[in-house]
Design a protein that fits this description.
Blueprint (H helix, E strand, L loop, with lengths): L1 H24 L5 H13 L3 H14 L1 H4 L5 H20 L6 H23 L7 H13 L3 H19 L5 H21 L8 E3 L7 E3 L7
Antiparallel strand pairs: 1-2
Helix pairs in contact: 1-5, 1-6, 2-3, 2-8, 3-5, 3-7, 6-9, 7-8
């Protein structure tokens, strides 16, 4: 259990760092981070702290969906946004399109690697992933419909609030699924029956399509 907890925390910290790196590229981010960014613009509160708060509020939506949080769920809420905020506070903004793309891709690769680490701990889904699988379970909607509905909504609201939508948003949507799939195959000791349906990041949070316990 200690090894799994260590794996969970390392993965979540790295996930937050990767998200912070992508934010500092300033070419767009994933839908949930766009949402957090928009709220940050409107409130003046750091995007990482907003990410933690959004995770907590999303967790409340689990109640009508009858989802049960795990240790990983609580850790996700506390760790990802915090490590993201610390990364943003020390990492300078990337300048020039070439550097911005390179920085963003580096952050996205780190998010994928971190996903493979923390999902493999199998200590409970992240709050956003649990929302998606809860909708799938309670409403009977396919996972892709749940994911599309949730992410399209937060992306639109985040953009209207001032969040950044751009090339990075497209790169993340196109690349994170294959990258996480590779990371899971390399890092998940019980990978034989793992199927991944990736939400597009802060948290970025990533979901097993069979709705079993993930990080």
């Amino acid at each position: 259990m200690t090894a799994r907890l260590s794996r969970l925390l390392i993965g979540l910290v790295l996930y937050g760092v990767g998200c912070g790196i992508m934010v500092q590229a300033h070419i767009g981010v994933d839908p949930w981070t766009v949402f957090a960014q928009g709220l940050s613009v409107q409130t003046g509160v750091g995007i990482g702290w907003i990410t933690n708060l959004v995770g907590l509020l999303v967790l409340l939506l689990w109640i009508p969906l009858r989802q049960r949080p795990g240790i990983g769920t609580v850790a996700n809420i506390l760790v990802v946004g915090t490590s993201m905020q610390l990364t943003i506070s020390v990492l300078p903004e990337a300048g020039g399109l070439g550097a911005q793309v390179a920085v963003f891709l580096g952050g996205m690769a780190l998010v994928a690697l971190a996903s493979g680490v923390y999902i493999g701990a199998r200590l409970g889904p992240g709050p956003r992933d649990g929302l998606m699988t809860g909708m799938n379970s309670r409403l009977g909607w396919p996972l892709w419909v749940c994911r599309l509905t949730i992410e399209a909504t937060v992306l639109l609201v985040g953009w209207l609030l001032g969040g950044t939508v751009g090339l990075g948003t497209v790169l993340f949507a196109a690349g994170i699924g294959p990258l996480v799939h590779i990371a899971l195959r390399l890092l998940d000791a019980r990978r034989g029956d793992t199927q991944v349906a990736v939400r597009t990041p802060a948290t970025t949070e990533i979901t097993a399509a069979n709705a079993r316990a993930v990080g």
